[in-house]
């Protein structure tokens, strides 16, 4: 792989974030300052081009019963906005977690979903493909433009991969 290609797809990790346990990132992920990613009850495995903004918490909790510990999978092209929280749940591809949204333990978010600002999904919730979950708990079908969403995430990556290192100590992985 050429040096130029590596620069365009490196994962940018702010040194002001807390990453503990076995966490694996795909290419092109951005981890902003003040994020917490804790893999206590199993690995956390991220796909490509995930944007994780400030004060996001993603935790794979350790179960009291060690047999129930499992790896946590987060697909590609997901956007986790400021203050969102994900607790021991699997996340598909191209999802949008608006500010201060919260996903409790053992939820499953399929593909192309939006979890609205300040929405708290209760434990064990399953959100099917192309759904929007609003604060009033109304679930609606989403008209989703996959190519547009992917382009948006990649363009965010391109801008943030320049801006974050200018203002924060980082490491590329």
Automatic annotation (TrEMBL):
<dbReference type="GO" id="GO:0005869">
    <property type="term" value="C:dynactin complex"/>
</dbReference>
<dbReference type="InterPro" id="IPR011004">
    <property type="entry name" value="Trimer_LpxA-like_sf"/>
</dbReference>
<dbReference type="GO" id="GO:0070840">
    <property type="term" value="F:dynein complex binding"/>
</dbReference>
<dbReference type="InterPro" id="IPR027777">
    <property type="entry name" value="DCTN6"/>
</dbReference>
<keyword id="KW-0206">Cytoskeleton</keyword>
<dbReference type="GO" id="GO:0007052">
    <property type="term" value="P:mitotic spindle organization"/>
</dbReference>
<keyword id="KW-0963">Cytoplasm</keyword>
<comment type="function">
    <text>Part of the dynactin complex that activates the molecular motor dynein for ultra-processive transport along microtubules.</text>
</comment>
<comment type="similarity">
    <text>Belongs to the dynactin subunits 5/6 family. Dynactin subunit 6 subfamily.</text>
</comment>
<protein>
    <recommendedName>
        <fullName>Dynactin subunit 6</fullName>
    </recommendedName>
</protein>
